[in-house]
Amino acid sequence: MKTADDIIDFILHGGEQYLPHLTIDSAIFGYHAQQLKILLVKLHGEDGWGLPGGFVKKQETFREAAGRILAERTGIENLFLQQFYAFGDSPYRRREQTVADLQKKVGPWLTITDDNWLLGRQISIGYYALVDFEQVSVQTDLLVEDYRWWDIQDLPHLLYDHNDMVNKALETIRLQLYHQPIGANLLPDKFTLPEIHILYETLLGKSLDRRNFPRKLFSLGLLNKLDQQRPIGPHRAPNLYEFNKANYQKALEEGIVLVM
Amino acid sequence: MKTADDIIDFILHGGEQYLPHLTIDSAIFGYHAQQLKILLVKLHGEDGWGLPGGFVKKQETFREAAGRILAERTGIENLFLQQFYAFGDSPYRRREQTVADLQKKVGPWLTITDDNWLLGRQISIGYYALVDFEQVSVQTDLLVEDYRWWDIQDLPHLLYDHNDMVNKALETIRLQLYHQPIGANLLPDKFTLPEIHILYETLLGKSLDRRNFPRKLFSLGLLNKLDQQRPIGPHRAPNLYEFNKANYQKALEEGIVLVM
DNA sequence: CCAAAAGTGTTGGAATTACACCCATGG
DNA sequence: CCATGGGTGTAATTCCAACACTTTTGG
What we know:
The structure is a homodimer. Chain A has helices spanning 4-13, 62-74, 91-94, 99-106, 162-177, 193-204, 212-219, 245-254; strands spanning 18-32, 35-43, 49-50, 53-57, 81-87, 123-132, 144-151, 191-192, 223-229, 239-243. Chain A is an alpha+beta fold. In chain A, strands 1, 2, 3, 4, 5, 6 and 7 form a 7-stranded mixed beta sheet that branches. In chain A, strands 8-10-9 form a 3-stranded antiparallel beta sheet. Chain A is elongated. The A-B interface holds A 19-22, 56, 58-63, 83, 85-86, 88-89, 94, 96, 121, 123, 125, 175, 178-179, 257, 259 and B 19-22, 56, 58-63, 83, 85-86, 88-89, 94, 96, 121, 123, 125, 175, 178-179, 257, 259.
C-alpha cells in the first residue's frame, strides 16, 4: 500500500482481496525508560489517534493478518501476539458507516457508491503484542500520517472504541501475567534484574518487593544469570540475565501460577 | 423462525436483517448428576452435532445476540454469558462457502444465486454460558432437528471447528475460575456442599480436599448456610447453602484470587 | 570520598496441606 | 443395625512478606 493509486484501488476494490466488515486492531505495547508505552497512529483523513489496524485477506488467518499488519507498521516479525477480544458492541460500531461518512473521509477526489465494501457495520478483533521498544521503527506512508509511543497513563481520547480496546488489552495482560511468563518480547535479549522488575511493576501497576520478586522467577527456572555486567554511569554495574528459553517456553505452554 | 416460509425468507433475504459472515456460537454448559454437560444441537441439513448458534442483527450487540440465541434455544433469559474467543482461522473457516456447498445444504427446493448473503468466509464469536441444567427445555423446530446434553468427556466429532471451540471455552472457564466465582448459574438456588465441591472438581479436572475446599468459599464470604437439609435416601441429609449474592457480585466485579 | 544504585538472608506469621473419626439417615 | 455418604478440627509444613545493611562504581 504505497502509492495514491494503490489507496484508491483499495478503497474502491479492496473487497476483492479483503474480508469486508472486519478489521484487526493491535495494541502494541513497548517498554522503555521504565515506562510502558503503546504505539498509536494517526491516519490521513482521521481526526485523532488510534490503534494500528488493518483488514484480513480472504485466505489469511487472523493471526497471520495481525502479524502482517504489525510487520508493516513496526518492521518486527514473529512477535508474541495474542487475541484478546472481539469488539462490535460499542455505539460507534453498531452505527453503520454510511456513504456520506465514508465520502467525508476519502475527500472529494473519489466518489463512493452505495455498494462500496467499506460501508456498513465494522467489527474488530483485538490482538495485543509486546515488543522491544528499541527494535521498532515505524514507517509513515500515504495512509499513516504520524505515529507516536504514548505513556499508557497519559492516553488521549482515541478514535472510536479504541480506548476500550486498550483497557481490555491491559486487563487481559494483567490476568495473563499470573499464568504465563511475560518479558521475552518486551525486553532486550540481555537485561538486568531492575529492568524486569520495573517491567512487572509497570504492567501490574503495583510495587513488588525487590528481593522477593527475582526469587519467584528463579524458582521457576526462568532466568539464567550471565557473567556480564552493564555499566550504568557512576553506580554499581548490574548483572545481566537472559531468559531460559526451554523453561520459558514450557511455562508459556503449560501455564504457571504466580502470586505477586 | 417458525414456518418453512420464514426459513426460506431467512436463507434468501436474511442479509437485510442480519450481519453477513458473522455468527455467534455458544458453548452452553450445564451440570447434572455430577457431570459437566454441554448442550449440542443437530440441525436439519447438517450431518452432525454442533454448538447452538445464530446470526447477529444489524443493530444488536454481540452480547444481546448471544442472549437472544440462548433464550430461543433453552428458554432461559439473563444468563451469565461470556465472550471467550473469535474463531476464523481453522481450515474450514478459511475455505469460503460456495454456491454449490450452500445449495447442497438447502436442498433442491430453493435456488441459491451467487449474491446470496450466506456465501463466503464465515467467522464466529464464541460465548460460553453456565446454566442450571434443570431449567433448560430445548425447543426443536424446523431448524433444530434434535438436541442433547453430552458429557464433555465423551463428545463426538463436531461440525466444523466446534471441537476447538469447546476446548477453548473450557480452557477459559478453568482460568476464570481462579479469578471469579462460578456456580450461581450452574447450580440450583439451594445446593449442598458436595454438589458445589464436585462441580469445581469437574471444572478443574482435579480433586480438591473435601475439608479445605469449603473453607475457601467461606473465607470469601460467598456462601450462606441455610437451616435446611436435603433428604437423599438412606444417608445423612446434607445441609443446604445459597450464594451470598452481594459478596458473589462483588467478587465477580472485583475479581478474586483462588488457589486450589 | 561521596552519591546513587545493586546485591543479598533471615525471621515471624499466615496460609495451605494433610489427615481420620464420628454422625445421621432410610431401608 | 448396617451401609453409605456427610460433617468436622488440628498439627505440621510450606510459603510469603517484611525488612536493612554492605558493595560497587564513576566522578
